[in-house]
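In this supplementary section we document a worked example of the pipeline. Step one takes a protein sequence of length 102 as its only input; no multiple sequence alignment statistics are reported here. Step two produces a three-dimensional model, which step three serialises into structure tokens for compact storage. The input and output of this example are shown verbatim.
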Amino acid sequence: ERGRFASSVEGARSGIVLLVPRPMLDAEQNELMRLLLDARVQQLIIFLRRGGLRHLDVNEHLRRGEYKGYAPLHVAVMRGTSSIVAALLELAHADPNTQAAG
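The serialised model returned by step three reads:
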């Protein structure tokens, strides 16, 4: 979604539309991608277990950068980090059938 606000996954789970500021979602996605790209498996697991993706849909495609149009799961697979792929699938409930944009 574009603009200053986006729907929260937390709200969707509750059956309501909860809009959160886009920078909040971007911060969650940036932290997720930092841990993923640095292959910090243990820190990623802790981040996910502590609710680090409170509002972000883990299947949302990246909006900028080298991996624009891909979901974090795609990036983990491309980088060959199987333990991170497993963490995204099991802890973040990433959709293995998510298609790349475009």
